[in-house]
């Protein structure tokens, strides 16, 4: 039996490797040619210390207190030279990917479908030459064919699949938008580099609030795919906001999620006051649609900077403090940030 081990490095790069039964994380990393920090490999020095944010594992009793104290172990700190995964795990590595002599994965994607979902949104589907190991919510850089420039897009598809989908905003004059509008053909090759980002689904041990703005829906769709594959009893509610009615996309997918997942509900919000949408205005005007206490929940927020800033200001003004808060804001070019 083997388990997936997601190694999150300080520079935002993630590598997903496999650990075989009875194999330590350190040995598994070396097998994948990743040089995690270490000196002794015997549980004595503490150089290989990291933090496990989710998953089950065994540390044994072969390390000394100077390397890892009981208090540190109780807080999720681990020694990769001693850690034996008992499930899929996510580990934060206190070093950059460059220091560990690894980096992003590069694969080729073959365009299989391009749908113009609305005047503002494309859906791009590609068949990858190899699966990209990513955490639901993370993004990759796509090289715009014919131009030596990349643009960053979040997966909207399930991690581990060779079929990858992305929601792409149609920006007038945008490099990727121009390619998709005027040049793209089925069978085109697009280089995919990643995964990247600290915006990803954590273990669902609390209720989940999802706040999406425009194509910020994409990573939340990936998270829903993961939660559908690995069900949880925790309640999940999404507020999905756009400017105009025609900007609402993937409603059929959301409907299917709500039908197949008893714990998932969603509401849509439209800014345009003249539209027929029941909920008008901004997402922050309709936080009362969430049936559970936000302060008991994990919040995932993805959208354009004005929306992200508005939600953060709302939470601060209302003195609402979720159990955890993860966000990503995107600009029309390629920049993404978040925690």
Descriptors:
Rossmann fold, 6 helices, 339 residues, 19 strands, single chain, Elongation Factor Tu (Ef-tu), domain 3, six-stranded mixed beta sheet, six-stranded antiparallel beta sheet, Ubiquitin-like (UB roll), alpha/beta
Number of domains: 3
Calculate Rg over CA atoms: 21 Å
Predict the CATH topology of the largest domain: Rossmann fold
- Structural class based on helices, strands and sheet pairing: alpha/beta
Strand content: 25-35%
Q: Main sheet, how many strands, which sense, barrel?
A: 6 strands, antiparallel
CATH level-4 homologous superfamily of the largest domain: Nucleotide-binding domain of ferredoxin-NADP reductase (FNR) module
CATH architectural arrangement of the largest domain: 3-Layer(aba) Sandwich
Spatial arrangement of strands, main beta sheet: 11-10-13-8-9-12
Write down the CATH class of the largest domain: Alpha Beta
Helix content: 10-25%
Q: Tell how many strands the DSSP assignment holds.
A: 19
| Overall spatial form | globular
Distance between the termini: 33 Å
What's the pLDDT, averaged over the residues?
94
Strand and helix order: EEHEEHEEEEEEEEHEEHEHEEHEE
Spans with pLDDT under 50 lasting ≥5 residues? none
């Amino acid at each position: 039996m083997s388990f997936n081990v997601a190694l999150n490095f300080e520079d935002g790069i993630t590598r997903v490797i496999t650990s075989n039964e009875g194999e330590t994380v350190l040995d598994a990393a070396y097998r994948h040619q990743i040089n995690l920090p270490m000196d002794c490999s015997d549980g004595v020095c503490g150089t290989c210390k990291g933090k496990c944010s989710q998953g089950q594992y065994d540390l044994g009793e072969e390390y000394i207190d100077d390397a890892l104290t009981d208090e540190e172990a109780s807080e999720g700190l681990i020694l990769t030279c001693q850690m034996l995964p008992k499930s899929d795990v996510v580990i934060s590595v206190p070093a950059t990917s460059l220091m560990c002599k690894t980096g992003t994965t590069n694969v080729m994607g073959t365009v299989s479908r391009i749908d113009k979902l609305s005047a503002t949104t494309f859906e791009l589907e590609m068949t990858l030459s190899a699966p990209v190991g990513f955490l639901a919510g993370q993004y990759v850089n796509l090289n715009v064919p014919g131009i030596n420039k990349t643009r960053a897009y979040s997966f909207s598809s399930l991690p581990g699949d060779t079929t990858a989908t992305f929601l792409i905003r149609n920006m007038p004059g945008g490099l990727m938008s121009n390619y998709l509008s005027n040049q793209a053909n089925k069978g085109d090759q697009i280089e995919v580099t990643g995964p990247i980002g600290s915006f990803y689904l954590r273990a669902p041990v609390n209720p989940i609030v999802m706040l999406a703005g425009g194509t910020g829906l994409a990573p939340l769709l990936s998270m829903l795919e993961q939660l559908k594959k690995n069900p949880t009893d925790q309640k999940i509610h999404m507020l999905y906001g756009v400017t105009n009615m025609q900007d609402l996309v993937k409603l059929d997918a959301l409907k299917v999620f709500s039908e197949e997942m008893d714990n998932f509900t969603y509401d849509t919000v439209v800014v345009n006051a003249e539209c027929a949408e029941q909920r008008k205005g901004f997402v922050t005007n309709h936080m009362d649609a969430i049936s559970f206490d936000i302060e008991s929940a994990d919040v995932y927020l993805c959208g354009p900077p004005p929306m992200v800033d508005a939600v953060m200001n709302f939470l601060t003004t209302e003195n609402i403090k979720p159990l955890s808060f993860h966000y990503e804001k995107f600009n029309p070019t390629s920049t993404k940030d978040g925690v």
